[in-house]
Each structure stands twice: as C-alpha cells, then as structure tokens.
Design a protein that fits this description.
GO molecular function, one term: ATP binding
Strand content: 15-25%
InterPro entries: Band_41_domain, FADK_N, FAK1-like_FERM_C, FAK1/PYK2_FERM_C, FERM/acyl-CoA-bd_prot_sf, FERM_2, FERM_central, FERM_domain
Subcellular location: Cell junction, Focal adhesion; Cell membrane; Cell projection
Number of strands: 24
Distance between the termini: 115 Å
Helix content: 25-40%
Radius of gyration: 31 Å
Organism: Scylla paramamosain
Membrane topology: Peripheral membrane protein
Strand order of the largest sheet: 7-6-5-4-10-9-8-11
CATH superfamily of one domain: Pleckstrin-homology domain (PH domain)/Phosphotyrosine-binding domain (PTB)
Number of helices: 23
C-alpha cells in the first residue's frame, strides 16, 4: 500500500518524471489532537491499515507524506533529484517554524535572524544588499508576505518590531550575494548546529531483562548509536549496511509486558536487542532502521516482517531469573518516552517507607516543553499529608472543548452538575492511556498515581488566589476536576492585553500572587514552578496560582531534593540548579522572575540563552534587566529576591507587605495624576471657586515597612522615592502660599468695597 501511494504522489509532483530517491519517503498517520504518530510500513495493504487503525478516516487523523530516511550526501541529492531535495528542505523548514513543542529549543535570537535572512534571499533571489534598508521593502515583507514565513512565532511574539527590523537589516547583507545552492545548504548547516533534523531519538533500553536505559540515536551520520544519561558523546553500535534482519518481539508475561526489537548484525554472534516502552515505539524504530537499510542497499526488499500476527513472544525475564531480584530493579531499568525523542519521566523516592511518587513534569515533550530541562541525579525524598475523599460522579460531568494540553493528556472546559441541578463551570484534566508499562513513563497504576499527585496537593489548600480542586474521578480514564479560570493562563493574557493593562493592575497581580505564596509558605509547601505560564486569570482583576505538579511538602528548616525530571532552569535559583535543592527561599527567587515576566508583559526570562549558560551568568552577577515602567522600589525588591545566598532573600510574608505598600503608593500616584489631568483638561482655576486640594502625603513610617528587615528597607528606600517625597513637600508649601494669597485678596476686596 505505502509504496504504491508514495509512487503515485511523488510522480505527480514531478510531472511524471523518474525520481532517483523514492526510497527516502514514508507515510505516517498523525492525530492532530493527541499528536500520536504511527508510521506505515511500505508493504502494508490498505485493508491491513484500516484493520490496525480503525480511526483512519476520522477528522482528527491525517495521512502525511514525509522524507524519513535521509541520504547522507545531500549535495548528491540536490544534483540528482531536485524535487526530492526541495521536498525535504521545505519539510525541515516547516518543522522549524511550526513545531511548537520544539520552539526555542537551543535556538537563540541571532541564529533565528540569520536563518530568516538566508530564506528571504532564497525566496527573493533578486534582492541586493541594500534592499532591506528601504522601509517599503520591509513593510512589504511584514504586511504582504508575512514574517511568519521566515521566523518562528515565539520570536515574533516576544520581540519588538523595531528590533526585528534592525536585526534583519544588519544581517541580510551577509547573505545578499548567495546563490540558490548556497542558500539551501547554509540554511541546513546553520539549523543543523542547534537542531539535528537528520537524527531521530528514542528513549529505550539496551538488552532485555535488567536492561540499561539509554537514548537511541538513528540517522545517516550516526548509524545506530546510543547515549547514556551520564555520557555526553554517543557510542556507535552498527551501520545500516551491517543489518541483516529486523525482528519485533514481545514478552509473554502480562505483568512485565515489553516490546523488543532485535537486529541481526553481520560479524556478531548475538543479536542487538532494544527494549521499547510500547509496541508503537518498537514498530517506529523497526520501520526507521528497515527504511535506512533499503535506502543504503538501493533495494525495495524489506528486512522486517510487519504483520502483528507474526509478533513472536519470548519468555519474560522474571520466569528465567531467581526471585531474589528486587522489583525496584524493574522500575530503574525500564525505558521512558516513546519514539521521536521523548525523555524519561522524573521519579522521586519516598523516605521512611512513605509512598513513592514521581512528578514526571513535562518529561514526555508536552506543551511548554521548551521551558524545562533535565538535571541528572539519583534519588529524592518527600512526604505528602493524608488526603480525604474528593471522588466525583462521572455521570455528573459534561466534558467540552479542549482548552489546553497537560503532560498526561488534554485539558477540557466542562461543567459539573451539582446536587441542586445547577451547572458549575470547571476545567477537566484527563489522563490518556498508553500501551506498554513498567519503568519510567510506563502505564498502569504508577501513571495514574503520578497524574493524581497534583490533586493530592491541591486538596489541602483554600485561598482566594489559588486554583481550587473540585474533585477527582477514579478509574480509567482518570480525571482531575478543578475550578475554571475564564481568561486562561497569565502569560498569554498579558501578551493579548499588553496595550490596555496599567501599572497598578500589574502590581495587583504580583501582590495577589504574593498572598498565595505566603499562604503556601505558612503551610510549609514549596511550589517549585512559579512562572507566568502557571498563573491563571479568573477575572481582569484576579489571578490565581495553579499547576501544583511539582509542589512538595517539607519539614520546617528542611528542604526538598528533586530527583530525575525536567525542571524550569531559567526560573530557578542557583542552589536549585547546582544542587537540586528547593526551599521557600528558592521559591522566592522564582517569584522574582515571575514578577519580572508580569512587568515585561509575558516575555520569558533569559531569551536566547542556553539552559547550560544560565547558571554561569547568574554566578557572574548578571540579573534580569529593569523592566520598562517598573517602579524602582519594586525592582529593588526583585533584586533582593535574586540574592545569591538564600538567607539574604526576604520571606514571602515580607514580600507581601512590601508589595502592599508599593501598590498603595502607585495607586495614589495614579489618582493624583488623574486629578491634575482633569483640572488641566477642564481649565479649572485654583483662584476662582476653591483653593487647590492638598497633595497626598506619603507616610514617613508605616507598620508594614517597620516589620521588614534592615536589608529590605535599604533596598526599598531608593533615590526615586526620596525625590518624590521632596516634590510633594514643595507642592504642599505652594498650596499654603496660594491659600494665604487668596485670604489677602479677599481682605483687600472687602476693604475697597467698604471705602466705596
């Protein structure tokens, strides 16, 4: 089936001409909702495909033609099969511009601008080096062509138009003399340095039984290689020319269901065995290697028999090994993630016989994955307070449209029918089932426990600025039902309303979050993921803290040590990056970054900086710059939150009171400004009807400020605030003089009237 359809499609693309490298193409089924991908073996018939994938004709399923098996010599492909090369080039470019799951992955601003200039030159071949200096040409690119065809959405959304224009003008001259050939290969070379489009990665394990978790790499330059979690370089195992057969197997034990791929390699006595987390991942790997073998051998004969009925079973290792092996070994040896490079989930060990749960935060490449990176370590410890029953009736739930995507599944808008018959708007988190099990990223009860972990944390909180848990639904599919925030996440809200949000409103958001975090601090909880993307907007004047997937309870004067898993590096305190140490003080650092995001209207911190370089900049004393229109006192508070030593940072209680005072002063200044503007517009005269109002006087001492530490007081008493107080005193003296003048004028007027 696959080979026939591919032949027809590419033949029509090339106008009926002969294509040299048709073996580079493959067909895949992609679900646009779940993003699940299934590659179709080129020997499958249409009947077999419909039997294996019953949802093939659904609206959410797309059949896509892709170049999957990449020729190692791309210049040869360019010269011999231009149609296939152009198809591959457009595919790479489209993935770079449109794949939100990998947005900004290793990509800095300068590289993105270079790629845009190269592509502009390739498309508009007649443009010379000075063409971009003309305003009309830039406006044509922006309005008629669209910069989204050259730059990823995250660059366009976070960069000012003026900055983009200057960057394009400054870089375009470097590539103005490039030919079509040079543009193509310079683009691929530049992109390939930060994103390997010629390599597919699989999170799996070497061998069977007590296997070793690795990242398997497959591509024309690496052949079949692997990289362990602790190694920086890949170890080569085999070339495609050496592969003699490909076989897929599964273990016979229901408890330890495993999918394996075995490669018979020339010159070796034992088969190369790879353990995959699911049958789908095993089939994807087998198809990929088989396709490369057909490409390099210039043959249409497959080395892999794909029929499911011929999947051979093998005895489970638990039937062959003594029972003295600990079941924990299975958890430690299992592979995580699936085909396409998903990383393994992070686990946390329990201490003192407590329950073991894993946060698994964004470990499988879910939404927002570009903000998280993994720090490798072994174990962690935490304890979770006991929970009470929050079970809901599944029949009382009405699941609506998808409004977001979580690590374990989609987030839906819905309604919950209360006992009185009324409908309560809710947000419903789903946990989709996966094939395979065991190890990190496996299914079954462990996956459900990880999914419900956020509910275990949320049920203990009751605060006006923390998202409330409505309840959970046990049994497949598991559901978490939460309070619905009508306006979605704060970061998107800030970007969409950047022209209408006032400074007092932004300060109000920071103050409300500080009250929520002060509440968590009193409960001895660390959040570990304080960022604008994890704050939800219930109303234009009300935000609420959410996403407690990383939250942990810690003893007083203690800390939480995170285990394996992806973490938001650019938001984290230095001790969290270096030592995986999380306390209320590290939450204070993250809140400082979150305040910076809010004042910057949704801009992410450390744009264009690699995760590995963030800690170097912090240790060199570099901090996030002063946001536009940020009150100096607030930036002083943010700077205190970013003190390198945790003990020098203020507590959330101190931050809350400081923000309360800053918010009050900012509102007072806004009111004074509005009154002065009103008098100016209406042409009011202070000497006609009444004397001018007394200007507001800032309190010299307040109870809130008095409670702060001397270091915090020093930071808050900035020259700007002192200058403001001097101006207010001057206005007060002028007001007194005006009042005296009015009294004198009235006395003179009465005296003159009496004489007359």
């Amino acid at each position: 089936m696959g080979g026939g359809i591919i032949g027809v499609v590419i033949s029509r693309q090339s106008g009926g001409g002969v294509r040299e490298y048709t073996n580079m193409f493959a067909l895949r089924l992609r679900n646009t909702i779940t993003r699940e991908v299934n590659w179709l073996h080129h020997d499958l018939t249409m009947a077999q495909v419909e039997c294996r994938y019953p949802n093939l004709r659904g609206e959410d399923t797309k059949l896509e033609l892709r170049v999957r098996y990449i020729l190692g010599d791309l210049p040869l492909l360019y010269s011999k099969d231009r149609h296939t090369f152009n198809f591959f080039y457009e595919q790479v470019k489209s993935d770079y511009l449109e794949d939100e799951s990998k947005a900004a992955e290793g990509m800095d601003f300068d590289t993105a601008i270079q790629l845009a200039c190269i592509e502009i030159k390739r498309v508009f071949k007649r443009m010379n080096g000075c063409a971009m200096d003309k305003k009309s040409n830039l406006e044509h690119l922006e309005k008629e062509v669209g910069l989204h065809k050259f730059l990823p959405a995250y660059i366009l959304n976070t960069t000012k138009q003026k900055t983009l224009r200057k960057a394009l003008q400054g870089n375009f001259k470097k590539f103005a003399a490039f030919s079509d050939y040079e543009c193509h290969f310079k683009f691929l070379e530049t992109l390939g340095k930060v994103r390997r489009f010629d390599i597919e990665s699989f999170r799996c394990a070497l061998g069977c039984g007590w296997s070793i978790p690795v990242t398997l790499l497959v591509g024309p330059t690496v052949g079949i290689s692997y990289r362990t979690d602790s190694a920086s370089t890949a170890q080569h195992m085999a070339n495609f020319e050496q592969i003699q057969s490909v076989e897929t197997l599964q273990s016979s034990c229901e408890q330890h269901r495993k999918a394996l791929v075995q490669f018979k390699v020339a010159g070796t006595t034992e088969a190369l065995t790879i353990t995959c987390p699911s049958i789908g991942a095993a089939e994807s790997l087998a198809d990929l290697v088989d396709g490369y073998c057909r490409l390099v051998n210039q043959s249409n004969v497959s080395l892999w028999t794909v029929w499911v009925s011929q999947w051979r079973t093998i005895p489970c290792y638990c039937q062959k090994e003594d029972n003295v092996h600990s079941p924990k070994r299975e958890e430690e040896g299992g592979g995580g993630g699936g085909g396409g490079g998903g990383g393994g989930g992070g686990g946390s060990g329990g201490e003192g016989g407590g329950p073991k749960r894993s946060s698994g935060r964004r470990s499988g490449g879910g939404g927002g994955g570009e903000d998280y990176a993994e720090i490798v370590d072994d174990e962690g410890d935490y304890s979770t307070p006991a929970s009470r029953d929050y079970e809901l009736n599944r029949a009382a739930l009405e699941v609506g449209a998808i409004i977001g995507e979580g690590q374990f599944g989609d987030v839906h808008k819905g309604h919950y029918r209360l006992q009185d018959g009324s409908l309560q708007p809710v947000a419903i988190k789903t946990c989709k089932e996966i094939e395979g099990g065991g190890g990190r990223g496996g299914g079954g009860g462990g996956r459900a426990e990880k999914f419900l972990e956020e509910a275990y944390v949320m049920q203990q909180f009751d605060h006006p600025h923390i998202i409330k848990l409505v309840g959970i639904v046990s049994g497949s599919p598991f559901l978490i039902v939460m309070e619905l925030a009508r306006h979605g996440e704060l970061r998107a809200f800030l970007q969409a309303n950047r022209d209408t949000l006032s400074a007092p409103t932004l300060l109000l958001y920071t103050f409300q979050l500080s009250t929520a975090l002060s509440y968590l601090e009193s409960k001895k909880f660390v959040h570990r993921d304080i960022a604008a993307r994890n704050v939800l907007v219930s109303a234009h004047d009300c935000v609420k803290l959410g996403d407690f997937g990383l939250s942990r309870w810690v003893e007083e004067h203690s800390y939480y040590k995170a285990s394996k898993g992806k973490l938001p590096i650019k938001w984290m305190a230095p001790e969290s990056i270096n030592f995986r140490r999380f306390t209320s003080a590290s939450d204070v650092w993250m809140f400082g970054v979150c305040m910076w995001e809010i004042l910057q209207l949704g801009v992410k911190p450390f744009q264009g900086v690699r995760n590995n370089d963030v800690i170097k900049r912090i240790e060199n004393g570099e901090r996030l710059a002063l946001p536009t229109n940020c009150p100096p006192r607030l930036y002083s508070l943010m700077s205190l939150c970013w003190s390198y030593e945790p003990h020098r940072r203020p507590t959330f209680r101190e931050i809350r009171e400081a923000l309360r005072e800053i918010l009050r002063d900012e509102r007072q200044q806004q009111q004074d400004l509005k009154r002065r503007e009103t008098r100016r517009v209406h042409g009011l005269s202070w000497g006609v009807d009444e004397p001018p109002p007394k200007p507001a006087r800032t309190a010299t001492t307040t109870t809130t400020t008095a409670t702060l530490e001397p270091l915090l007081l020093q930071g808050l008493e900035t020259p700007a605030s002192q200058g403001l107080e001097e101006r207010l005193k001057l206005q007060q003296r002028q007001s007194i003089e005006d009042q005296r003048w009015l009294v004198e004028q009235e006395w003179n007027f009465r005296s003159n009237s009496g004489k007359n």
